[in-house]
Design brief:
Blueprint (H helix, E strand, L loop, with lengths): L2 E6 L11 H9 L3 E6 L12 E6 L7 H13 L4 E2 L2 H8 L3 H7 L8 E2 L7 H8 L3 E6 L9 E4 L3 H14 L2 E5 L2 H6 L1 E7 L2 E9 L14 E5 L3 H18 L5 E9 L2 E8 L11 H17 L1
Parallel strand pairs: 1-2, 1-3, 3-4
Antiparallel strand pairs: 5-8, 6-7, 6-8, 9-10, 9-12, 10-11, 12-13
């Protein structure tokens, strides 16, 4: 019987509720599924046929330990989804620069790590009325806030400290998200599966449900899906590895999909909203487990 570890974190030790259809689909196909906290010292990772990273939603807060864990899995020849080189590439959001160089439309980004960066000067240089600052390795909206000329100097000390500790980035505030929402396109093995639109609560920045945001299943225009497929292809070309699962996050600027993040480590994939998604992913997981 195939043993599948779904790597999670302490806060979601029994898996986030959205993973339930995936567990059901894997078990229906004869697999045994184990939710396993990624940084638990008691786990024998070699006892599983495959480790699938799902809800490791605290890894950005202990990035050195997470990198060491990935190294351990590699050194012990433990099969992992997504592939380890792809996971490592996706950790640091400076991958956005690589994709922009490949012709992908991305949200303009100033990467400040290792640089003396003045927030007020960045706003004025780029003519941004407001911008978002956040870590280059981030999650859950940690250390993310909006700056304007009115609060840039006040924010500078906090920004400098965080930039020194973890590395920060600055992007213009995308009004399109406030107006029309952020689109998440989900792909399995290079094929489009489904999409959702996430909208922040009024007068809020973050789209996550825990911050009052909403999530609705949508059917994007074929041109938007094709742009998402092109992003997945560019990632495959850059890394040499096709993501078995990936979420492409962005917004529409007229008819152009503007990439904000490419997520192939631990993205929520909205299994409870699309009946076929978990079944499709489960089949791919077992294909990989069997081949490993």
């Amino acid at each position: 019987m195939t043993a599948i570890a779904l790597a999670t974190c302490t806060e979601e030790a029994t898996l986030f509720h959205d993973e339930a259809p995936l567990v059901d689909a894997l078990e229906a196909k004869g697999a045994t599924v184990y939710p396993v906290v990624w940084n638990s010292p008691e786990i024998d990772w070699s006892s599983y046929d495959l480790v699938v990273i799902r809800n490791t939603w605290d890894y950005h807060r202990q990035i050195s330990a997470f990198r060491a864990w990935l190294d351990y899995l590699e050194q012990h020849h433990i099969a992992v989804l997504n592939p380890l080189p792809l996971l490592r590439w996706n950790i640091d959001k400076q991958y956005l620069d690589q994709l922009a160089e490949q012709g992908i439309t991305t949200l303009p980004t100033v990467f400040a790590k290792g640089k003396d960066t003045n927030l007020l000067e960045v706003l004025r240089q780029h003519q941004w009325q407001s911008a978002v600052v956040k870590p280059i390795i981030s999650g859950s909206g940690d250390h993310t806030w909006v700056i304007t000329e009115a609060n840039a100097q006040e924010s500078q000390r906090q920004f400098d400290w965080l930039n020194d500790q973890i590395g920060m980035m600055i992007q213009p505030l995308a009004s399109q998200i406030q107006d029309n929402g952020e689109i998440s396109l989900v792909f399995f093995a290079g094929e489009y599966s489904h999409a959702v639109c996430k909208k922040p609560a009024p007068d809020h920045l973050l789209v996550q449900e825990e911050f009052g945001g909403s999530i609705d299943l949508i059917q994007p225009d074929k041109r938007v899906i094709q742009q998402g497929l092109n992003i997945v292809k560019k990632v495959t070309d850059i890394t040499g590895f096709q993501p078995i699962y990936a979420r492409v996050d962005g917004f529409l600027d007229d008819d152009t999909f503007v990439l904000m993040e490419f997520e192939c480590i631990e993205p929520e994939l909205y299994f409870t909203r699309v009946s076929h998604a978990a079944e499709r992913f489960a089949s791919l997981i077992l294909d990989v487990a069997t081949a490993s």
